[in-house]
Design a protein that fits this description.
Blueprint: H1 3-15, E1 19-23, H2 36-47, H3 57-80, H4 90-95, E2 101-104, H5 110-118, E3 123-125, H6 128-132, E4 139-142, H7 156-160, H8 162-165, H9 167-179, E5 181-185, H10 192-203, E6 211-215, H11 220-228, E7 231-235, H12 245-257
Parallel strand pairs: 1-2, 1-5, 2-4, 3-4, 5-6, 6-7
Length: 258
């Protein structure tokens, strides 16, 4: 199926109010926040870690938590994600104009900043209690918690205990995956969050709407892997004349809105 045909499927899902965006850390770049590598390197420096640079980030976060305790762990992370420095970009403001739910594994407030800037109507759920109280058809689901609440999913134990800490959100997200066309934005091929979500997709019925992952470079082996897990890869880097990724994202979102 051609890129244009896939884009048409996404637009049809939007028109039917059956389009959901999954947002990863790549959508929080260039908004005034540091990248994950800086945070992990700070953890490793404080731990005086001699481990290989490629060590599992979840393990590094777990080691920091065990060494310094919950208070210092959350304090360190909050110092890296100051909400007052966040600047929502045009891509975020376009995203929230598309009538759909947004689910994110990010715990920063970038999307909320765009919602505030545009005075958009969204219910925001950062935990199970807030999800119960949502009434709007347009929701922002922060499935990995929120930096201000301190209920973030980051270290090993958080992933292992996710079903116990976020049971309602987990079931809600799984139902969304089974009934809606899903577009993943801001995830790399090796993102641990994406790996968990693809397992949820694979465990659902094969008779479900399509799922797409937006990327900026071709990788046939990875494409084959994700296709086997029910996710089609859409490389938008050669579909628009812009070299800048943010402009490519804006063009893609504008195409959906048309």
């Amino acid at each position: 199926m051609s890129y244009e045909a896939h884009l048409q499927k996404i637009k049809e899902a939007k028109n039917d109010n059956k389009l959901v965006f999954f947002i990863g850390s790549g959508m929080s770049k260039d908004v005034g926040l540091p990248d994950w590598g800086e945070l992990i390197n700070e953890f490793k420096k404080d731990l005086n870690s001699k481990e290989d640079e490629k060590e599992d980030n979840l393990k590094i976060a777990q080691l920091y938590f065990l060494e310094f305790g919950e208070h210092e762990y959350i304090k360190k992370i909050k110092s890296f994600f100051p909400s007052e420095k966040i600047i929502a970009k045009k891509k975020h403001k376009l995203l929230i104009k598309i009538p759909q739910h947004i689910i994110t594994t990010n715990w920063d407030a970038v999307i909320e900043k765009a919602i505030d800037d545009e005075m958009a109507l969204y219910d925001i759920a950062r935990n199970d209690a807030e999800l119960i109280n949502t009434a709007s058809n347009r929701k922002l689901i922060k499935m990995h918690g929120d930096i201000e609440l301190g209920n973030i999913v980051f270290k090993e134990d958080d992933y292992l205990e996710y079903s116990q800490k976020f049971p309602l959100i987990e079931n809600y997200v799984k139902s969304v995956l089974s009934m809606n066309t899903v577009v993943f934005f801001g995830y790399s091929y090796n993102d641990i969050n994406l790996k968990y979500i693809t397992k949820w997709i694979q465990s659902n019925s094969k008779v479900r709407p399509p799922a797409y992952m937006i990327v900026f470079k071709e990788d046939k082996i990875q494409e084959k892997y994700f296709k086997n897990h029910g996710i089609s890869i859409l490389n938008i880097s050669d579909k628009y004349k812009f070299k800048d990724k943010n402009l490519q994202i804006e063009a893609f979102l504008n195409d959906i809105l048309i």
